[in-house]
């Protein structure tokens, strides 16, 4: 069971992680992180703006897992973009997480006029060995083209809203051509996709839920995925996706659900 994939720089990243957007910074996030690690998750995805990095760090510490067995992602927030600000924001995230490094540091949104300087800071952190991998989030093709024109190091990841209604096929193709891995946020469409009868019908064939069908579709498309849940049973359910395989026909059925509908903001019209 190959549960990790190599990024462009050779670092192994778990295909499945726990997302903690909108998870409360207290006991809720501490418990979720601990349950996830117990259920076999080896990646946690947080961000400075989620205001729960300290709780994530507490959950990690309480789980007793060895640091090197875990893959932790966090992100620099929009108001901290710029070279010096980003270097400082990274240190602040480390201190909140109570860690001496994170595995993956991302630019959270492509703030116009700022993201190139921010990227230079991420390159500095990477070259100094302070972070194992660097990437971006919510970048469209034109943002990536612009960034790549000046970057010394190409982003290893682009984390975007991605689910069956917004399958991001053109962006995935562009990323593949540039060695940039794709990661899905809100893979379950914030839970709104789980009532779709097409997904229920596919799941019934395998004894799996619609959530498991979507997450399996991510895996079979080489998309890193970070479903969020604060419920133990769901956290466990979302990890039970390595023991079945969707047929090519199922994959095609899920691909056909695409309508380019977003549940989150469009990166070109984000109120920064
Ligand atoms: P909860 O956290 O209360 O369990 P996404 O990752 O796409 O943003 O989706 C997260 C939403 O989907 C949350 O509201 C979460 O609710 C819900 N959710 C996550 N996993 C499952 C599941 N296996 N079954 C039903 N709902 C789920």
Automatic annotation (TrEMBL):
<keyword id="KW-0560">Oxidoreductase</keyword>
<comment type="similarity">
    <text>Belongs to the aldo/keto reductase family.</text>
</comment>
<dbReference type="InterPro" id="IPR018170">
    <property type="entry name" value="Aldo/ket_reductase_CS"/>
</dbReference>
<dbReference type="Pfam" id="PF00248">
    <property type="entry name" value="Aldo_ket_red"/>
</dbReference>
<feature type="site" description="Lowers pKa of active site Tyr">
    <location>
        <position position="75"/>
    </location>
</feature>
<feature type="domain" description="NADP-dependent oxidoreductase">
    <location>
        <begin position="15"/>
        <end position="258"/>
    </location>
</feature>
<feature type="active site" description="Proton donor">
    <location>
        <position position="50"/>
    </location>
</feature>
<dbReference type="GO" id="GO:0016616">
    <property type="term" value="F:oxidoreductase activity, acting on the CH-OH group of donors, NAD or NADP as acceptor"/>
</dbReference>
<feature type="binding site">
    <location>
        <position position="108"/>
    </location>
    <ligand>
        <name>substrate</name>
    </ligand>
</feature>
<protein>
    <submittedName>
        <fullName>Aldo/keto reductase</fullName>
    </submittedName>
</protein>
<keyword id="KW-0521">NADP</keyword>
<dbReference type="InterPro" id="IPR020471">
    <property type="entry name" value="AKR"/>
</dbReference>
<dbReference type="InterPro" id="IPR023210">
    <property type="entry name" value="NADP_OxRdtase_dom"/>
</dbReference>
<dbReference type="InterPro" id="IPR036812">
    <property type="entry name" value="NAD(P)_OxRdtase_dom_sf"/>
</dbReference>
């Amino acid at each position: 069971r190959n549960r990790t994939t190599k990024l462009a720089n050779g670092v192994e990243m778990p295909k499945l992680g726990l997302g903690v957007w909108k998870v409360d910074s207290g006991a809720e996030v501490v418990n979720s992180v601990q349950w996830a690690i117990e259920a076999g998750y080896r990646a946690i995805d947080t961000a400075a703006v989620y205001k729960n990095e300290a709780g994530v760090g507490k959950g990690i510490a309480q789980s007793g897992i060895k640091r090197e067995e875990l893959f932790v992602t966090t992100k620099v927030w929009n108001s901290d973009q710029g070279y010096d600000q980003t270097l400082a924001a990274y240190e602040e995230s480390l201190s909140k997480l109570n860690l001496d490094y994170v595995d993956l540091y991302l630019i959270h949104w492509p703030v116009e006029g700022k993201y190139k300087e921010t990227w230079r800071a991420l390159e500095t952190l990477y070259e100094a060995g302070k972070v194992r991998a660097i990437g971006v989030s919510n970048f469209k093709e034109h943002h990536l083209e612009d960034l790549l024109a000046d970057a010394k190091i190409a982003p290893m990841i682009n984390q975007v809203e991605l689910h069956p209604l917004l399958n991001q096929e053109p962006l995935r193709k562009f990323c593949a051509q540039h060695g940039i891995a794709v990661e899905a946020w809100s893979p379950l469409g914030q839970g709104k996709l789980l009532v779709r009868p097409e997904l229920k019908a596919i799941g019934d064939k395998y004894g799996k839920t619609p959530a498991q069908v979507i997450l399996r579709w991510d895996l079979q498309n080489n998309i890193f995925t970070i479903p969020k849940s604060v419920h133990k049973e769901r956290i466990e359910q979302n990890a039970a996706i390595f023991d079945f395989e969707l047929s090519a026909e199922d994959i095609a059925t899920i691909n056909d659900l695409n309508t380019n509908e977003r549940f989150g903001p469009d990166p070109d019209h984000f109120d920064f």
